[in-house]
Structure to design on (120 residues):
């Protein structure tokens, strides 16, 4: 099975400041993967591969994609870091409480009031 089954593109890929990132003859849409490859390993190391992937996956294919370190930093601040914080919070308190996902859930009546309120 190929590692990439679907390729998306944007009408125009722009750098911060509005300049075209990789103009092609005849106005052919630029592949996002060509920009990934064109930025080199430095971009993935500096921006973080997960931040770049989320930037591309949230992009509307019909709209221009603004590409740059600032754009990816915004993605990291608005999505990656909050997601990591939620995961870290869960793991920290699950370890403290010795949470076992395979254990049967207690009956609703026997749970603390706050748990019953959240479930309702």
């Amino acid at each position: 099975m190929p590692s990439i089954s679907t390729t998306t593109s944007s009408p125009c890929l722009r750098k911060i400041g509005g300049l075209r990132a990789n103009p092609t003859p005849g106005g052919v849409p630029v592949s996002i993967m060509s920009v990934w490859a064109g930025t080199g390993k430095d971009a993935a190391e500096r921006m973080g591969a997960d931040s770049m992937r989320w930037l591309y996956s949230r992009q509307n294919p019909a709209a221009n994609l603004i590409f740059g370190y600032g754009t990816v930093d915004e993605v990291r601040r608005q999505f990656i870091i909050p997601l990591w914080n939620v995961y870290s919070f869960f793991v920290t308190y699950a370890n403290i409480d010795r949470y076992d996902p395979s254990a049967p859930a207690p009956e609703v009546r026997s749970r603390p009031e706050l748990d019953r309120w959240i479930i309702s």
